[in-house]
Write a structure and sequence with these properties.
Layout lengths: L2 H6 L6 E11 L4 E12 L15 H9 L6 E6 L2 E2 L22 H11 L3 E6 L4 E6 H5 L1
Antiparallel strand pairs: 1-2, 1-3, 3-4, 5-6
Protein backbone atom coordinates (compact mmCIF):
# COMPACT_ATOMS: atom_id res chain seq x y z
CA UNK A 1 0.00 0.00 0.00
CA UNK A 2 1.41 3.38 -0.96
CA UNK A 3 1.57 6.33 1.43
CA UNK A 4 -1.06 8.15 -0.64
CA UNK A 5 -3.46 5.17 -0.40
CA UNK A 6 -2.85 4.90 3.33
CA UNK A 7 -3.58 8.61 3.89
CA UNK A 8 -6.80 8.40 1.89
CA UNK A 9 -8.12 5.44 3.86
CA UNK A 10 -9.82 5.63 7.24
CA UNK A 11 -7.50 6.18 10.20
CA UNK A 12 -6.60 3.08 12.21
CA UNK A 13 -8.87 2.28 15.13
CA UNK A 14 -7.81 3.64 18.51
CA UNK A 15 -9.07 0.44 20.16
CA UNK A 16 -9.61 -2.98 18.61
CA UNK A 17 -11.27 -5.89 20.41
CA UNK A 18 -10.75 -8.84 18.10
CA UNK A 19 -12.71 -12.09 18.71
CA UNK A 20 -12.29 -11.94 22.50
CA UNK A 21 -13.63 -14.78 24.64
CA UNK A 22 -13.34 -15.28 28.39
CA UNK A 23 -14.71 -17.90 30.74
CA UNK A 24 -14.43 -18.42 34.48
CA UNK A 25 -14.33 -21.82 36.13
CA UNK A 26 -16.39 -22.12 39.29
CA UNK A 27 -16.77 -25.10 41.62
CA UNK A 28 -19.62 -26.72 39.72
CA UNK A 29 -19.63 -25.04 36.34
CA UNK A 30 -17.80 -22.89 33.84
CA UNK A 31 -19.32 -19.48 33.13
CA UNK A 32 -18.79 -18.06 29.64
CA UNK A 33 -18.50 -14.33 30.35
CA UNK A 34 -17.58 -13.27 26.80
CA UNK A 35 -17.96 -15.23 23.58
CA UNK A 36 -16.26 -13.99 20.39
CA UNK A 37 -16.67 -10.25 21.01
CA UNK A 38 -15.30 -7.86 18.37
CA UNK A 39 -15.47 -4.08 18.13
CA UNK A 40 -13.46 -1.11 16.91
CA UNK A 41 -13.40 2.36 18.43
CA UNK A 42 -12.08 5.26 16.34
CA UNK A 43 -10.18 8.19 17.80
CA UNK A 44 -12.66 10.65 19.31
CA UNK A 45 -15.49 8.13 19.20
CA UNK A 46 -17.59 7.71 22.34
CA UNK A 47 -19.17 4.33 23.05
CA UNK A 48 -21.41 2.98 25.79
CA UNK A 49 -21.55 -0.64 26.89
CA UNK A 50 -24.98 -1.48 28.27
CA UNK A 51 -26.40 -4.75 29.55
CA UNK A 52 -27.86 -6.55 32.54
CA UNK A 53 -25.83 -7.53 35.57
CA UNK A 54 -23.58 -10.49 34.88
CA UNK A 55 -23.49 -10.17 31.09
CA UNK A 56 -19.73 -9.50 30.85
CA UNK A 57 -19.46 -5.69 30.70
CA UNK A 58 -16.91 -5.45 33.52
CA UNK A 59 -15.00 -8.47 32.22
CA UNK A 60 -14.66 -6.80 28.82
CA UNK A 61 -13.48 -3.55 30.42
CA UNK A 62 -10.99 -5.46 32.60
CA UNK A 63 -9.55 -7.10 29.48
CA UNK A 64 -9.37 -3.78 27.62
CA UNK A 65 -7.59 -2.24 30.62
CA UNK A 66 -5.11 -5.14 30.75
CA UNK A 67 -6.26 -6.28 34.20
CA UNK A 68 -7.49 -9.61 32.83
CA UNK A 69 -6.26 -11.72 29.89
CA UNK A 70 -8.70 -13.11 27.33
CA UNK A 71 -8.89 -16.88 26.80
CA UNK A 72 -9.07 -16.23 23.05
CA UNK A 73 -8.67 -13.19 20.84
CA UNK A 74 -6.72 -10.00 21.36
CA UNK A 75 -7.05 -6.34 22.24
CA UNK A 76 -5.06 -3.57 20.54
CA UNK A 77 -4.78 0.00 21.82
CA UNK A 78 -3.10 2.37 19.37
CA UNK A 79 -2.21 -0.70 17.30
CA UNK A 80 -0.23 -2.21 20.22
CA UNK A 81 -1.29 -5.40 22.02
CA UNK A 82 -2.79 -4.87 25.47
CA UNK A 83 -0.93 -7.36 27.66
CA UNK A 84 -0.97 -5.58 31.03
CA UNK A 85 -2.26 -2.36 32.59
CA UNK A 86 -0.77 0.77 31.06
CA UNK A 87 -0.52 4.45 31.89
CA UNK A 88 -2.48 5.46 28.80
CA UNK A 89 -5.63 3.60 29.91
CA UNK A 90 -7.74 4.53 32.94
CA UNK A 91 -10.23 2.40 34.86
CA UNK A 92 -12.87 3.69 37.25
CA UNK A 93 -14.01 0.77 39.38
CA UNK A 94 -17.67 0.18 40.16
CA UNK A 95 -17.12 0.17 43.90
CA UNK A 96 -16.79 3.52 45.58
CA UNK A 97 -13.21 3.94 46.68
CA UNK A 98 -13.16 7.67 47.33
CA UNK A 99 -12.68 9.60 50.52
CA UNK A 100 -15.81 11.79 50.71
CA UNK A 101 -13.99 14.51 52.68
CA UNK A 102 -11.37 14.99 49.92
CA UNK A 103 -11.78 16.85 46.65
CA UNK A 104 -10.95 15.22 43.29
CA UNK A 105 -7.25 16.13 43.50
CA UNK A 106 -6.99 14.78 47.03
CA UNK A 107 -8.56 11.47 46.03
CA UNK A 108 -6.18 11.13 43.08
CA UNK A 109 -3.17 11.76 45.34
CA UNK A 110 -4.53 9.40 47.99
CA UNK A 111 -5.23 6.60 45.49
CA UNK A 112 -1.68 6.68 44.16
CA UNK A 113 -0.25 6.65 47.64
CA UNK A 114 -2.48 3.79 48.84
CA UNK A 115 -1.09 1.60 46.08
CA UNK A 116 2.42 2.23 47.43
CA UNK A 117 1.56 1.29 51.05
CA UNK A 118 1.38 4.93 52.10
CA UNK A 119 -1.07 7.78 52.05
CA UNK A 120 -1.19 11.55 52.42
CA UNK A 121 -2.49 13.52 55.38
CA UNK A 122 -3.91 16.99 54.85
CA UNK A 123 -2.41 19.61 57.12
CA UNK A 124 -4.85 22.49 57.46
CA UNK A 125 -2.34 24.66 59.31
CA UNK A 126 0.28 24.23 56.56
CA UNK A 127 -2.30 24.00 53.76
CA UNK A 128 -0.42 21.06 52.28
CA UNK A 129 -0.30 17.29 51.92
CA UNK A 130 2.17 15.23 53.96
CA UNK A 131 3.14 11.73 52.69
CA UNK A 132 2.82 9.13 55.45
CA UNK A 133 3.92 5.50 55.34
CA UNK A 134 1.46 2.89 56.72
CA UNK A 135 4.17 1.27 58.83
CA UNK A 136 5.06 4.58 60.53
CA UNK A 137 1.54 4.73 61.98
CA UNK A 138 1.95 1.35 63.68
CA UNK A 139 4.99 2.54 65.65
Amino acid sequence: MSLQEELQGPPPAKLVVDHVSKSFRQKRQTVQALDDISLEVAEGEFIVIVGPSGCGKSTLLDIIAGLEKPDKGRVLADNQPVLAPGRHRLVMFQESALFPWLNAFGNVIASGARSQNSFFIWSASKNSWKPTCMSSLAA
